[in-house]
Amino acid sequence: MNLKDKKVLVIGLARSGMAAIKVLKKLGAQITLSESKKKEDIKEIEFLNENGVEIVDQSMEVFERDFDLVIKNPGVPFRTPMIERLNERNIPVITEIELAYQVAKPQHYIAITGTNGKTTTTTLTYDIISRAFPEKTHLCGNIGTPLCEIVMENNLMENEGHYIALEISNFQLVNIDKFRPDVATIINLTPDHIDFMGGLDAYYKSKTEVYRNMTDNDVFLLNADDSVVAEYTERYPVKCKTLSFSVDSESADCIIKDGYMCIKGEKVLPVDAIKIVGKHNLQNVIIAVAAAKAIGISNEIIIDAVSAFRGVEHRIEFVREINGIKYYNDSKGTNTDATITALKAFPKGVILLVGGFEKGLSMDEMKLHLGCVKKVIGFGACGKRLVNDLVGDDGIVVTTLDEAVAEANKIAESGDTVLLSPTTSSFDQYSCFEERGEHFKKIVNSL
Known about the structure:
The chain has helices at about 15-25, 45-50, 80-90, 95-105, 120-130, 145-155, 170-175, 195, 200-205, 225-235, 280-295, 300-310, 335-345, 385-390, 400-410, 435-445; strands at about 5-10, 30-35, 55, 70, 95, 110-115, 135-140, 165, 185, 220-225, 240-245, 255, 260-265, 265-270, 315-320, 325-330, 350-355, 375-380, 395, 415-420. By secondary structure, it is an alpha/beta fold.
């Protein structure tokens, strides 16, 4: 990709936009940043001014200008009038991940998408591979570090053969072009991001973009337990090698049998080496193990890495026990399926804290999994709606997370569990689920 003197528009700053700007600057592009914030509120303003970045607003006049390329921040909806206008004018719109992929030398990409389990699976995959290639393995993508940042920090425009464990969201997949991973998976598919995508079909279809460019020598890991994944991989066929995995049957390529995770008939990992709890984590581990085997990692390294893995922050994360009451931070539970998964980890006595940004998700399925729940407490913009849909007048509705924890403490008894698993995103009161989870832990640790 030759970008010297090309006119490139970056829509939305944040960390990924900033990383993209640094790559574009190195390549000699003429950069314009379209940002909704006022200039005085952009903390990177000094760097942008020093490097000749033109800063404009997001009025429609901006998108009538001529650009050779547009880099869209994943958080910017792809169905807005400004994006539609760029498409009408046949101006290419790509994501930061696509930019990084096209400007870097060839690397080994392990791309992990799906509705739930991405962060745990990607992190464990990274932990395994980094033990084999400690100087050449990187963790990035939707997990927090932009791929462009990794490209710059490790000079991947000049160096090749690194291993990239990449968590990739549907927001990042919508505008890919040539991105092609060596190994990829769709962990699962359940309702989410209807607000962003405009419907479930568009959301599910976007996930299939992860394997669109894969060819014969690449490997797609297929969830044999997920009927929706089966439907969409049939509608949008996988053209590369496929390895199926299952935690429910022994008919797939990657299974659990006789106390072992077995990959194509080989006993690779003793199940008792796994320290993270829950059936969903068996699925996450088998994907990471299969991905590691696909790129030639030894069983010894896999066993050592999995044995040492204790899970990820904000995903059913134990915070503290006070007077026999346990507190868990599941702030990454940003859809109903994630919260259902968290509830399955506890037999009884759960005081469930739900709420946040209104995504319009139905609570019908979740209502079937409230057997372990003692009380539901709603907070934030959609807290009242969630409580009404889940338990009606039996729930408690407050405004903030602080108030929700305070109410939980009033009714919690020894043996109970206070679980923050919001079922939705954090954007009503927080900038991200991490900020929400950190706030919850701060509240709990101050009790």
